[in-house]
Design goal:
410 residues; alpha/beta; Rossmann fold; seven-stranded mixed sheet; 16 helices
Length: 410
Amino acid sequence: MKIIYLHQYFKFPNEYGGTRSFDLATGFVNLGNHVEIIASTSDKKYKTQNRWMKVNRNGLKIHYIYLPYSNHMTYFSRSIVFFKFFWFGIFKLLSLKADIVIASSTPLTIGIPALIKKFLHKTPYIFEVRDVWPEAAISIGAINNKVLQKFLFFLEYIIYKYAEILVPLSVDMKKSITSRYPEFSQKPIKVIENICEINRFQNYQFKKKLLVNKKIGFKPRFTILYAGAFGRVNGLDYLIELASKLLFIDSSIVFLLIGNGIEKKKLIDKATLKCVLNKNIFFFDAIPKQDLPQLYYECDMGSSFVISKKPLWANSANKFFDTLASGRPVLINYEGWQKEIIEKENIGYVLPCVIDDHSIKKFIQYSESKLLCQKQKENALKIAKGKYSISLAIEKYNKILTNINVNVKQ
């Protein structure tokens, strides 16, 4: 079977970013499929006069278009990049033969090339819903124009309607889709959450020399790692406030923040103003995915945060799954399906969206409970293996691909 995977932000493990598409695509290849990727890149080495450059790597064929993009860009600048990718992506996709197309959002516009190929070439497509977009973008004020909002909801509806199957990355995303579009309740929708890369995190050649201690200059009692984007949706001002309150009660709890993004400078400035920078909160640049296991290994807990907007609670962030894959408890500050599984499976701690002295003291008590934290480490790895492993995700996807291929041939 020939599969074309449309993912604007496709990343290899030696790059910064999520590797879900890489892990799935290599899994499809191992099952005997031929996989080609259509993606954009900010790496100048892929800049060419022919616009597209084809790269063969890890059994995959990747078609790269050079379109510089970063979390430092404004929403308007990002929109221009989205437009360019789907426009040029249409012609690239139409030039390739495929049995099935997988279009992986965000952005929502990733579905347009797949939609056009379906209309012109009758090629079925799977639409992978990584975020409830545009609902999430509207909730944070990124899209305020009412006409544009209506158009994007219409586009979302059309993309969902003509997809052979929808693959949302959380049960809450599925609920969002069916609650807003009840007619899709009967449509095939298969939840395949983000992936726990267990081998990558558990079979890493861990170094005895502790990087965290070297980075911050001392050995904390309890270290919490945040490894991800510094964007508006992440609401990391929350962490600055948390660190500020903790500093005067228990300065032995330390936050290590690894990543880049448009909010980073503002956060560092705020941490400086609050007198917590390089005391109990430390900032460092993003590192490749393949280097993260060492940091998780040295920390007591991983974390994921979003601002208090309900559509964002449906997220299936890499940070959550990386934490579980590393065998560490996870700390969050929002409700939704992740809160439910944390509490049900005893794999972490949920802070309230508004911090007060009582919640601070309760969290300190939690951090001091070594037996509980050890139990949660064991539970986290167990859940990672039992619910969110790469092999399970590929098995679920393979059933989808096989059924679509059989139905098309009939």
